[in-house]
Amino acid sequence: MEFGNGNGTGTDNCNCNGNGIRNGNGIGNGNGNGNEKVKGANVIKMKPMDSELLREQGHIMVDFIADYYRDLQDSPQDFPVLSQVQPGYLRDMLPNSAPDQPESLNELLDDVTKKIMPGITHWQSPSYFAYYASSTSVAGFLGEMLNAGLSVVGFTWQTSPAATELEIIVLDWLAKLLQLPDHFLSTGHGGGVIQGTGCEAVLVVVLAARDRILKQVGKTVLPQLVVYASDQTHSSFRKACLIGGIHEDNIRLLRTDSSTNYGLLPESLEEAISHDLAKGFIPFFICATVGTTSSAAVDPLVPLGKIAKKYGIWMHVDAAYAGNACICPEYRKFIDGVENADSFNMNAHKWLFANQTCSPLWVKVSEKDAVVNYKDWQISLSRRFRSLKLWMVLRLYGSENLRNFIREHVNLAKQFEDYVTQDPHFEVVTTRYFSLVCFRLVPVDGDEDKCNQRNRELLAAINSTGKIFISHTALSGQFILRFAVGAPLTEEKHGRLYKNMPLNLPATAIVKNILKETVEN
Ligand SMILES: Cc1ncc(COP(=O)(O)O)c(C=O)c1O
């Protein structure tokens, strides 16, 4: 796909006239001394990238962020994990229009502390166990800094050869850690590209697969194209199909249930394909998921891949969350069968410490030019130098540490699961494969409606404490609680990074107490 013509960096993006800073004050002095507002006469021409100012204010900002991470651990009472503000809270706290004159960094950071922080849900809190994590690390943070500092736009090879070449190399490294088949390696018949998000990754492959089938059978067949996935598949798949012109009625979300732990039954797929073929539809795409958003269910790639091959269907594997665990040999089995896939993606910003956003996608490529021009592998033209942070994460930690960290998160989830299992008030509702535990209060006298209501109330009670944040999902009509481990501080808090660590008891104890209180009242 090609969405641009190489002239996409935009026009002049800086109109500095009328703005400015005053020497030593305003934004030029982040430590807040002499913080008076700059008046027109004193304004000097703005220097948006003054190296000394960057040095001074960069240090202040790093200190601010480092203090945040320290305080998240040391003063959790000041940081309710789930923000407790009401909608619209910020409107009354900020002016109606942007300032004419510069303000100081100190003033701004003061506002961050007093006005922005209350509206932050602390995804980096050690007591964050809600949606899949947004994992950060010092290495990822430094990579983001370097990326922001260099700020290149590597849409073609020549716009920054290092940006393209490092991305190819780092994605080969990661593909090897995941033991992906040769056809996803740049040295084989494929290659990797870092998309911003999982949503972008699935959109790109749906469009590529659609174009492939339209080329094969003719462009008029668009209304006959059908796609398949389980009913547990992330909503981005449906969105991608709709953007790609696939009619809503032609998106088959096949039913799953507890008998397969919410994984897609191959027989359901084959039956749906046969049915569609008999009616004149053209099956062209299946999205299999390893680690669904709702319950970390796993679709069986081996049989699904065989079916895809038999019918000439593009199979994509969405392993946004669980793909990260597959760098550990003991979890690699969950992507066995990826050998038959046409594309595979995972979100390194979920569980591989590559700060948002970083979604590596690998595809089989039929024709390759001498150089890769990544603008043709994604939706937008402009692109960030994201491989820097992944490279830094891989180099500064090493794969053995990354594997151990993931294992520790899984252990933590297992210990939480054990606790839930031992308490007769609760049940674990799906088989846990990774670091997500799906559980609920059990029904009393078989009353499922009442049970759903009690679990809803329990969730609200837990999250309103601000001490811990968990989320929920629905499975087979049941209201289920999700406890997902993945925030990096969940271990750092105890200073045992990269070593076997005991359970983060404070977090678990909080849930236990709240659960007990709720059950007993
Ligand atoms: C299985 C799965 N696929 C796709 C996505 C979407 O990823 P992103 O938020 O990066 O677009 C998610 C997000 O949680 C997910 O869990």
Automatic annotation (TrEMBL):
Keywords: Decarboxylase, Lyase, Pyridoxal phosphate
CDD domains in alphabetical order: DOPA_deC_like
Entry annotated with the keyword Lyase: yes
Cofactor(s), names only, from the UniProt record: pyridoxal 5'-phosphate
Superkingdom classification of source: Eukaryota
Entry-linked SUPFAM superfamilies: PLP-dependent transferases
Family listed: Belongs to the group II decarboxylase family.
Record-given protein name: Probable tyrosine decarboxylase 2 isoform X3
Taxonomic source organism: Camelina sativa
